[in-house]
Amino acid sequence: MKTGFHYEKHLPHQQQAISSILSVFHHANKQDNDKGENPTLTLSDKQYQDNIRQIQSQNQIDKTPDFSNILDISMETGTGKTYTYTQTMYEMHRQLGVYKFVIVVPTLSIKAGTEQFLKSDALKNHFRLDFDNAYGQTQIELYVVQSQKTKKGKRNNPMPSEIIRFVQADNAHKIHVLLLNMGMVNSKTMKGEDSGNDGSVLLKDKFSKPFEAIASTRPILIIDEPHRFDDSNKTWQSLMSFSPQYILRYGATFNDRFKNLVYHLSAIDAFNQDLVKGVTAHIQTIDGDKQRKVSFIDSDGTTAIFEFDKQKFHLNKGENLHKIHAHISDLYLDNLNKTKVVLSNGVELKKGDSINPFSYSDNVMDMMMRHAIRSHFDNERTLLNRADKIKPLTLFFIDDIKGYRDGDKIAGSLKNRFEHMLKGEAQKALETAEAGTAFYHSLQTVLNDVSATHGGYFSKDNSTDDEKIAQEVSEILHDKESLLSLNNPRRFIFSKWTLREGWDNPNVFGICKLRSSGSETSKLQEVGRGLRLPVNEYMSRVKDGDFKLNYFVDSSESDFVAKLKAEINQSSEHEVVYETFNDEVFDKIKSAYPDVKKRLLLNELYALGVIDDDDNFTSDGFEILKCQFPKAFTVATLKNGKISDNKDQSKTKAAVRVGKYDELKTLWEAINQKAVLQYQMDEDDTLVLFKAFLQDNQQRFTATGISIQTQKMIKTADNRIDFQTQTSLENELFEPIVTMGYREFLTKLAQKAYIKISTLHQAFFELKDTLDIRNFMNDDTIRFMLSGFNDYLLVHSLSRFEVGYQKISSQVHPTKLTDKQGKALSEIDINQDWGMLSESETPLDSFLFDKVFFDSEIEHQNVTDDEIKEVVVFTKIPKKAIKIPVAGGGTYSPDFAYIVKTSGGERLNLVVESKGVAGESHLRQTEQQKIRHAERWFKTLNQCQGIEVKFVTQFESESIKKIVEQALY
């Protein structure tokens, strides 16, 4: 009985790649050489070029070959590149007699995975038993070169024993494979420059250096992940020392630097043919001000200067960026020079670069971890209850290695927080799991020993003496089957970025990117660790499910889906331009237009001058054909639903504490009264203000035509992914374009801005010498004037003109806390309007809800720090709940509402605006104005409602306790 993975034979996309390589050697001459050497494969230049051109035509590849000895096979991650080049070796051995190959991979983790694959009994049995004896008893003999550690007082062996064995091997009935990683290729050992190599050991009586000896075997060189082996670097030069007959490069990423591309399975093909999982992105939104960035502005090589909120911070090497912003934790200045700094997570900043501090918050990281754990258990519930059970894995990328490896010794460490969350989520899931099921048993396993459910692999682990860590690494890198066993409790894997490329596991269903990778990595490469289709408990690939990889990122990667879709769409080969109307062209047309008859079509095309007597397309013939049959020549597009945002995440709810709302009811209904804003100015005042606005902005109406643009992803009519360009009106310089008459322009502007046409005309007339509006009469000008004048009104209200409020309705309910009848809700959905949830904390007893949520650190402190005995109840006010009108057409909503009672029984209704800045001078002018409008509104409310509401602003240095005390006395 076969054990281990069950491999499938004759998968079409793999067989096409294999046959493409073999077809290159059609009509090749084979010359046998000495024992231990591959036969020499030779082709005339013409034959070689003809073969490659024919293969590219058959595979619809529109890439210009360079006819070097390099052959490129592009296959998307997760589609079986390693299997494909392995069967290619078997076929080259069977058909051409080639039996010595050198495989080079970039990293140790890829090397470990390749070694495990090639050595596995399951693979050997697959080629021996599943191909009707096509390969007979042929097996792979693998030679793995490991780094040599020099022991004290001893010299290294002059040449690694595995290289000696590989070079001397002369059994042509086996396939001999030498496996190397990039570091070994560049080592002194390979160059023969090791201290132990004195030239006395000779292979074949003439080679003392490994490169020379390997080159003598006339090998076929296979390169995995070719984008890591740039042909301009020293590694490539070292590889050329092997003198390979041919170089086969297999990868998903070539950065469009192909040599002779003979097969291309694009990402779009892989997703659309369901050869890989789909992807659902979970983007953790953060309600902190996205414009507040920590910027690197200067360095003298010793001290780096950062800026945040107009304050400068000086940091030396090793200092924590926490001193700049409280949300940043465990992020240090790792290195610096006069032009750039490197942070401890690998992120490199040049002068002017910035980071979002909220992305480095432990609260955000904890929420992402918790969501990833929940998603994992949701997958387990489904996958473990299948008839053929599938064990899912989740991968966490972190940069806090110490917090994971030494977590037991550090209070509040990443490891401790993770295990606490994991245990809590397992207990919660157990409540609804059906007893006796595999999922129920799995949850019990977690609760019995939570530490056994996770393990990690980091680069420094390669030299550890810790047996537990060594076991974790062995499972992750070398024993994929053990990791997938239902009897193995390990299902969560932690790594920095050591596993980000090359390593994968078919049952990775979740990847949680807790911190930045430190580089702008291809999104396809990032998700590649979990794209492969899963295997079940019997180690057979499962293709019958709509499997999705859940990918968790923070809001700094809010464009993740757009970038991933763009990469996938771009991966599709450019359209093939045909020179002749051949069977392939007709087949395309026939599949899209079944009623077309070939002979009638040819006659029609000839009559139209599309083709000539020999069925060759005339100069514009193919373009005319495409226009006539557009559906036949569409470029492949990504299927709906394969890549998506997680817009429909299950909502987290917070319960309204029983009885608390009754105390808050009177204040809540009062501040939810509807009102309109009244401008206390006449038409002359409007004219003066509008003229002043135009004068302040007249420099924008120039002939430069420069504007700021943003791009938003849309789906086009032909189902492709495209980007719609939108122009930002802020700081825009207008080009003189006229798309409407003066009367139409004035009418449209008057309707939108609520300004009389006569007033607008008079303003433009009086400024005609400095601003001739007749040159700029278009919709962009109207949009700018509407937006700009509204902002102008807000900034200049209460100084250049007054405003008042008029209550308009007694209808209050429903509100964010009540239904239509005014009854308090029992629970709310915590969304962006309420703030960021912290499930690891408990709110103060006086808080209206049973969960902690907040928008900023100062709000966080208000909800969790120091119970105030005078406070009966308080609530966070969600965004847009209390829409206080402000000048310019906008609205404003404060942050908290408090009910305070003194020992004498007096009641105080307190509404608080919390600002995480040092004082009013640090607020934007628009924010200051909104606060002044709120003061006016509450003054009006006190007069017309018969209730006294005190409105105050809380700044960073003021505790809420101090605010309450000041309000009372």
Automatic annotation (TrEMBL):
It comes from the Bacteria. Keywords: Hydrolase. One of its GO terms (cellular component) is cytosol. Residues 12-255 form the Helicase/UvrB N-terminal domain. Residues 847-952 form the Type III restriction enzyme C-terminal endonuclease domain. Signal peptide: none annotated. This is Type III restriction-modification system restriction subunit. It comes from Moraxella catarrhalis.
